[in-house]
Amino acid sequence: MNYRDFLQKIIYVLINPLIKGMIKVGITPNFITTTGFILNVVASLIFIYASEDKTMSDSWLIGCAGAVILFAGLFDMMDGRLARMGGMQSKFGALLDSTLDRYSELFTLFGIAIYLLRNEPWVWSGVITFFAMVGSVMVSYVRARAEGLDIECKVGLMQRPERVVVTSLGAIVCGFTESLWALVVPMIIIAVLANLTAFWRIAHCYKVMKG
After folding, report:
1. pLDDT tens track for 58-87
2. Cβ contacts of residue 103 below 8 Å, gap of 6+?
3. Choosing a second label site near 68 at 20 to 30 A (CA), which of 61, 115, 122, 182?
4. Contacts of 34 (CB under 8 A, 6+ apart)
5. What is the value of pTM for the model shown?
6. Rounded-to-10 torsion of CA 45, 39, 155, 181
7. What gap in Å lies between CA 92 and CA 100, rounded to an integer?
8. Nearest C-alpha neighbor of 202 from the set 162, 168, 151, 158
């Protein structure tokens, strides 16, 4: 069992009582998925609003945005768990989940990019955030394209759960320390490792096809 499966089991133990409550009151997985997406949009808007301040005096807003992203990540886990436990799995639900996951990540990284680009000494880090956005999309795209060709493609270092955790914790630490490096370093990590993972997956598919 890898570390992701281990952590997932722990989280499921914690959220299972909540999931059972949702089933009783009739909450659907699609509602949870949509709520998580809305929360990520809110986080993006917080970053954009905070970009109006050039002095970092409102850096606590960045920490709030990070907390919202982390909270939204729980919804990303709950929708799938709710669908399985409640017998509400559907092809459309899976499509909606994957689509809104991509939108959610792009919205949050867009908000961060705007925040960094509007802080003149950190314009270069806004460009790096753009590369993080590209890598995040391509990691998911290569996997989806591979699975369309009947190739299992889950290799790599920076999948969505890791990216969410790195982004949210970086923002939270930035809010406490008032140091933009706490936000910039996670963007560098994602930009490098996400794009590396995309090419890693391409190489993996090449080997499988040639094999």
Report:
1. 788 999 999 999 999 988 888 888 888 888
2. 37, 40
3. 122
4. 96, 100
5. 0.90
6. 40
7. 12
8. 151
